[in-house]
Every structure is written in structure tokens, then in C-alpha cells.
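Input C-alpha cells:
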């Protein structure tokens, strides 16, 4: 019996020594120390032993068990330590490696331009109003003194969705909506930035989708001189204090009188060059006094209230300000373009 126990001990200790992982080790634990294991099996023969030998064998069996248990425990500790070590090694961070450059994003030049214009008018006491891009014919045209069949509708070739719904061709419907919402009372001082759509063939100066900023002021005693003063402040702040403005008579169905505003050419100082087509002036925006019909349709008493409105294209402003020669650059999103002009963050 003694030999059997010793042989078992040697076998178990050898097996434990060569074990590679915790699972195998656990299998050995179950096999050798479990209730149905070989030690228990051998001890069943104890009954045949003499009274003298019995305690000796009992002690030996305990010793064998103890040594196997101890060996398993120390092996387990070793395997666990190795596993932690391996994990640490595989997760080592080399802090001396050079960092990967992170490219900083920036706002789109057009967004920056719109925000710059917004800030300028917010500084003059305006608030921002927005409206839907999918618009009713009523607000886009009719409420702006452009009834169905009016020839001036041809000035803005439109994408119709149904007979009465279209993609707005300008941001002026926001002024119609805002006026209507006031129920004929109280002053208005808003700018309306947003996307607009026209059935134009895209080229260097035309895009079927572009941006507009509309301005509207309605109150008692609003005069043409208020419009001129406002536009003058805008032009000088935007393009430089040395720039002059001029208003030329024009036509828009929703304003009367209507004007177009030019600024003096920076290139030639007004003498005439290629940039200003030899005129000394560059066209910037359309404007005028709100047509009495438009005020009345929105519920305002046009004898009491007057107003002015203006509309401009931020793309055109940015093109002039930064010397951009093609409107399509704003939409093709070439990063080489987007990160220029000193207007990235
Ligand atoms: N909505 C006009 C356009 O898109 C611009 C404009 C706005 C003109 C307000 C006058 C007053 O052509």
C-alpha cells in the first residue's frame, strides 16, 4: 500500500509540474483529490491492514494528499502570475512613440460667412427668424404680391412639388410668415438666413441650391433713409470703412420702390477694372420699401406701418470678400478649398 501511495504521489506531482494552464490543473485536482480519486480508492484497502500499520498508512495518505494539494496550489499561483505578466506585456504602451497628428475640423466657409452676417445684424438689434424650405406657393409668391400667372414669377424658376407646394426660391416667405404671425401689430426687425432653390443650370455664378439672408424691418415711420443707413453700415463693416455704396432703381414685386445696392470696387477704387467690369461698382444685394399690398395681405395697416426689406446671397458676399471665382467650390467640399481664406477656426 505504501508503494502504491508513493507511486501515486510521484505520478501526480510530475503531472502537475508539466501542466500548461489552469484548466488542466483543475482537471488534475478533481482527478487526484476528488472523493472518487485514487487516494480514496487505495485507502479502502485499509481494513486488511494490521492495527499497527493502519495509522502509519493514514498518516502517509494524508501526507500524499497534502503534498499534491500544496503542489497544485503553488502551480496555480505560478500560472496566474504568468497570465498577469503576459497580459501586462501585451498591453504595454510606449510613451516615447511620436503621436499621430489629429486634423482639426473647422466650420464650412459658408457657415462662417452666414454667422458673420448674422452677428453684424444681431449687433444692430435684429433677431433671427427661420422658415420651411418646402414652402407653400402662397408664402413664396402670393403673399409677396406675386399672384398666380404674374410674369415676375419667371424671375425665379421654381421646383414645384405639387401645384401649391414648392422648394422656396428665396427666404422672403419667412418675412410673409413673420408678418402674418404678428396679427398686424407691433414692430418687426428680423433677418432670415437659409437655403433656397431655383431651376438654374449650375455654372461659376449659378447654383440650383444656394443661401440667402433676408432682412425685414416693419414699424411706424420706417423710411428709405433707414434702409440706406442700415445697408451702409453693413457694407462698411463687411467690406471695409473705405467702401462706398450706391442704390440703383430696380424692380421686385414685393417692394416699392425697389433698389439694387452696389459697393465701390476695392480693386480699382472706383476707376473701373476687370473685377467690376469697368464700372467701378459691384452689385451686392436687392432691397426696397415693403409694398403696401404685402403689408395689407399680412394684416398690417399700410397707412400706419411701413417697412424695408433686403435680400442677399452669402455665397456672393464671400466670393467678393475672399476672391472666390466659382460658386460651386462651396458645394464640392474639397478640403483644400475649405481650409483657405483665413476663415477656418
Ligand atoms: N427675395 C429677393 C430675391 O430673391 C431679394 C429681395 C429681398 C429683394 C427683399 C428685395 C427685398 O431676388
Amino acid at each position: 500500500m505504501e508503494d502504491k501511495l508513493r507511486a501515486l504521489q510521484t505520478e501526480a506531482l510530475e503531472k502537475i509540474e508539466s501542466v500548461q494552464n489552469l484548466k488542466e490543473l483543475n482537471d488534475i485536482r478533481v482527478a487526484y483529490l476528488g472523493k472518487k480519486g485514487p487516494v480514496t480508492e487505495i485507502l479502502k484497502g485499509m481494513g486488511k491492514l494490521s492495527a499497527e500499520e493502519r495509522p502509519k498508512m493514514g498518516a502517509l495518505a494524508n501526507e500524499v494528499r497534502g503534498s499534491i494539494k500544496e503542489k497544485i496550489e503553488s502551480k496555480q499561483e505560478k500560472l496566474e502570475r504568468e497570465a498577469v505578466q503576459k497580459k501586462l506585456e501585451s498591453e504595454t504602451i510606449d510613451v516615447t512613440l511620436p503621436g499621430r497628428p489629429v486634423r482639426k475640423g473647422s466650420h464650412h466657409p459658408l457657415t462662417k460667412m452666414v454667422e458673420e452676417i448674422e452677428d453684424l445684424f444681431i449687433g444692430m438689434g435684429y433677431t433671427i427668424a427661420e422658415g420651411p424650405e418646402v414652402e407653400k406657393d402662397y408664402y413664396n409668391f402670393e403673399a409677396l404680391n406675386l399672384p398666380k400667372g404674374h410674369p415676375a414669377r419667371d424671375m425665379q424658376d421654381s421646383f414645384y412639388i405639387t401645384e401649391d407646394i414648392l422648394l422656396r426660391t428665396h427666404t422672403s416667405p419667412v418675412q410673409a410668415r413673420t408678418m402674418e404671425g404678428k396679427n398686424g401689430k407691433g414692430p418687426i426687425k428680423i433677418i432670415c438666413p437659409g437655403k433656397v432653390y431655383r431651376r438654374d443650370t449650375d455654372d461659376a455664378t449659378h447654383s440650383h441650391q444656394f443661401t440667402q439672408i433676408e432682412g425685414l424691418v416693419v414699424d411706424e415711420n420706417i423710411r428709405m433713409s433707414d434702409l440706406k443707413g442700415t445697408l451702409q453700415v453693413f457694407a462698411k463693416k463687411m467690406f471695409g470703412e473705405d467702401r462706398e455704396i450706391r442704390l440703383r432703381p430696380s424692380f421686385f414685386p414685393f417692394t416699392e420702390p425697389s433698389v439694387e445696392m452696389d459697393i465701390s470696387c476695392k480693386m480699382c477704387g472706383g476707376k473701373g477694372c476687370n473685377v467690376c467690369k469697368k464700372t467701378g461698382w459691384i452689385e451686392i444685394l436687392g432691397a426696397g420699401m415693403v409694398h403696401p399690398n404685402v403689408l395689407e395681405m399680412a394684416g398690417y395697416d399700410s397707412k400706419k406701418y411701413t417697412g424695408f426689406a433686403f435680400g442677399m446671397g452669402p455665397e456672393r458676399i464671400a466670393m467678393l470678400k475672399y476672391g472666390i471665382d466659382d460658386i460651386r467650390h462651396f458645394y464640392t467640399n474639397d478640403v483644400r478649398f475649405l481650409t483657405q481664406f483665413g476663415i477656418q477656426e
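The first strand starts at residue 127 and ends at 128. Residues 170, 172, 214, 252, 255, 286-288, 309-311 surround phenylalanine (CB under 6 Å).
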